[in-house]
Amino acid sequence: MNVQLQDSSNAMQNRNKWGCLLLLVAGVAISWGVYECKYYYSKWSDYRNSPWAYSEDEDAKLLVGKWEGSFSDPDKVRKNITLEVFVPLTDDERENKAGKRWKRRAFSTRYNNNFDGIATVNSKLGTEEYKISGAVEKDDMHQLHFSFSPVDERKKVVPNFTLLGATQGKWDNDQLTVTFNFGYNKADGASYYNSADPRHEVKVTATLRRKNK
Question: Of 3, 13, 48, 123, which is most buried, counting CB atoms within 10 Å of its CB?
């Protein structure tokens, strides 16, 4: 009788172990399925909502990437600019988001129209390093605007007409046209504006070309 009870107990324990294992496997499979769904839904959503930044075609000509061109500032100083527009959400960031617990608006649409990037301007005055932040227009993704801010205030090139913003932007295939506006910084780095000086009202339109990889 004791032997039968022992065998019955062992069988029950084995069934419990297998049951726990199956539950564990099922939990892992469900978690992986949720991760995959969140990841690929996010990607599909970006293809649909942000075609200026994402495409299934690896050779598509997007706004994201590097652009280069030249312009003359209000002091007639010739300057070369290299500008890079970052992809709003990288694949690594997307994977990290997909792996986190679901939250309301986990994949926010806040970046559908917004972008960040960097710009480098070179001239006889020195090298100016900027961060850029902007957006494409909601009704026409080929129109855009963005603002400039120095990467490091302590390394600003002064005295100088520095970049403040770009308006009336338009990009198409390999060409990006923008109108730059400027702010003047004195030798001590302080901003300066003189309404009687026409240079302070100058805006410059420049055409940038896509930089080859």
Answer: 123
